[in-house]
Amino acid sequence: MEKYEEAHKLVIRPSGCRIVLTKRKEDGKHVVIKQIPCNFVDQDAITEEAKIIKSVPAHPYIIKYLGDFRTNGVYNMVMEFANGGTLFSYVQKRITNDRIFTGSKNALQQYYKSILKIFYQVAQALDHLHTNGIIHRDVQPANIMLHNDNKEKKSLIKLIDFGCSTSKKYAQSDKGTLQFMAPEVIQNKPYSYKSDVYSLGCSLYFCVTGREPFQGRDAKPAVLFSMKQKWEQRPSQMLAQFQLPETVSLILDETMNLDVGNRCDMNWVLNKLHDENVE
Ligand SMILES: Nc1ncnc2c1ncn2[C@@H]1O[C@H](COP(=O)(O)OP(=O)(O)OP(=O)(O)O)[C@@H](O)[C@H]1O
Ligand SMILES: [Mg+2]
């Protein structure tokens, strides 16, 4: 840790994992260090997240990995700092501060536009992962960071948290995550790239309604699965009061299809969002 200035904690997870913000002494750059206690999961699982993120060719919408080191029983993963908070807190702030769901129709439509812009970037990040043979497996608004690039004067998303591919056991115990999981994942059936598509749909659902698609944060996997199964209608049919743009309705219906075979793929989502975001 001698290469870094004193760290400020951002998050401490019940698992013992800490996320800290610090400055690299060499160049004064802000970086984030994810600190995982080594006794927490098996050694291979600890380094798996780093292995995966290292294997992905750099992409503007995926958090940049800057290296790793060990200190007194802690595995430290250094990465770029995303300065705009999570998509989850962005949505919560917009609902509370800007009252988007109770304000003017125009403001709501502008909000939806901004969400579609964000999701176009998320879909590009996921498509890049898939092209490189990786399934994220934990796509949710808390794993999508917002970042203002001051130099380029651009807002970018940064996909984070590649810790689920092998350390699924502790990821599954996180109830927040279950809400966004594809039914085949909840049932422990084989994953596919389309499991990320489903989670992308649930994340979009959260952003356009301000609530998780399946209420019941404490529900057990089997209960949650049966809740998902009971959804006979298409998601958009239950959301008439939100006056969703057609593209949003279409994406929700296609991505949140319980049947993997009939679910759209990431390419379809990407094309829809591309058409929507072309000025
Ligand atoms: N690079 C980053 N820049 C800014 N904040 C970050 C960054 N990485 C993580 N965070 C913050 O820390 C939180 C937790 O990070 P992360 O999702 O990687 O850990 P986790 O959910 O505990 O992971 P896991 O699912 O592997 O247990 C994020 O939701 C975000 O608030
Ligand atoms: Mg996370």
Task: Describe what you observe in this structure.
The chain is an alpha+beta fold and 279 residues long. It contains 10 helices and 7 strands. It has helices spanning 43-55, 87-97, 105-131, 168-172, 175-178, 183-186, 193-209, 221-229, 246-255, 266-277; strands spanning 8-12, 18-23, 30-37, 65-71, 74-80, 144-149, 154-159. It has a 5-stranded antiparallel beta sheet, with helices on one face. A two-stranded antiparallel sheet has the order 6-7. Helix 3 (105-131) packs antiparallel against helix 7 (193-209), helix 3 crosses helix 10 (266-277) and helix 7 (193-209) crosses helix 9 (246-255). Residues 166-176 have low confidence and may be disordered. Residues 10-11, 13, 15, 17, 19, 32, 34, 63, 79-82, 86, 138, 142-143, 145, 160-161, 163-164, 171 line the site of adenosine-5'-triphosphate (ATP). One of its GO terms (cellular component) is cytoplasm. GO terms for molecular function: ATP binding; protein serine/threonine kinase activity.
Present the secondary structure layout:
Layout: E1 8-12, E2 18-23, E3 30-37, H1 43-55, E4 65-71, E5 74-80, H2 87-97, H3 105-131, E6 144-149, E7 154-159, H4 168-172, H5 175-178, H6 183-186, H7 193-209, H8 221-229, H9 246-255, H10 266-277
Antiparallel strand pairs: 1-2, 2-3, 3-5, 4-5, 6-7
Helix pairs in contact: 3-7, 3-10, 7-9
The site of adenosine-5'-triphosphate has 23 residues, from strand 1, strand 3 and strand 5.
Task: Describe the structure in brief.
40% of the residues lie in helices and 16% in strands. With 279 residues, the protein is an alpha+beta fold.
